[in-house]
Amino acid sequence: MMSTRRAFLSAGGASAIALSLAACSRSQPKTAQTVASGTPIAEPVLNDKQLAEILQRVQTGLAAADKEKNADKLKEIMSGPAARIRAAEYATASAGGNDSYIHAMSTKIQGGGVGQTVGFPRNAAVASEGDKSVSIISLEQSSARDQFKVWAWVQGFAAQASIPVLTKQSAQHAKQVTAETTGLVATPKAVLDSYVDALNHPDGENGKAFPDDNLRQKVQSARSTDLKSLGEVTVTAVPGQDGFQGLQLEEGDGGALVFTTLTFTVVYKRTVDGSDLTLQGDVAAHMGGNQKIVGTVTATYDSMVAFSIPKEGSGEKATVLGAETALMKVERDDSKTPAPTASAKPS
């Protein structure tokens, strides 16, 4: 049956979203100005120098946390899904004795921007240049007493790595986005729903709309796991519960950079009595001394994703810029073991 969700075709390349800091004081973050009526005026509250200092603090703190694989040390530099997913990477690296599960996040700025708002939370976005990939980072300041922390980050997909997602050119009005932000080819929530549908139905309308990116390949690889006719694998994706962050230009191309999350589960089920199925990789690392599938084993992954959503009427299409995925937990249910095969009656 054709999905009732609207399909959003992904262009071959993302449109450049030119977000940068408007001219601000280079001292302390500014408080909102007011007009004669007393109405606060929303304006950027950081400048380039301050943003660079925030990222340097994040890099220093992250290096210390990564070295010890200590999730408690993330509290001062990360929040929300970023902290949760980084902690999960530490757990998998420790369980498997393999630090490659801890993915690099670069904070060398290519470009950045800060949303204009009079309240909290306040959001910023940064594109940073690494040795092998581009990191796209969402920062959040929860209250006036809190420091900016990394709320989400993604590794830019190889096909999108050269796209100037955030540049230094002027963007005087960068509005913070919500799930239902309008003025775009689709709301952030609608784009996420369509992408999740593409993960669940790769041959469906939305599945054909989005390019075959790294996250889609990871999901398809899990779905294609060969259990030698002794079992079956089911993969299901759902939208995350973390909400949406990002920036929307009110001038120029009017596009938005949006960060959000999704979750997908991989259920490995043994279907043939007496069969011997053993898991490997990150899932096996979380299974301790018993890596065999007796009944079912369920692996749950969280992914941070970033979308470029063009302005309504632009003729361009929403696209996925990158993702960061971690294994959150592994659960086993040995009670779901297959029924014994009936023995043949003697003749």
From TrEMBL:
The leader peptide range reads: 1-22
| Key words, A-Z | Signal
Where's the DUF8094 domain? 43-330
Tell me the domain of life: Bacteria
A Pfam family of this chain: DUF8094
Keyword Electron transport on entry: no
Answer yes or no on keyword Signal. yes
Name of the protein in its database record: Tat pathway signal protein
Originating species: Actinomyces oris
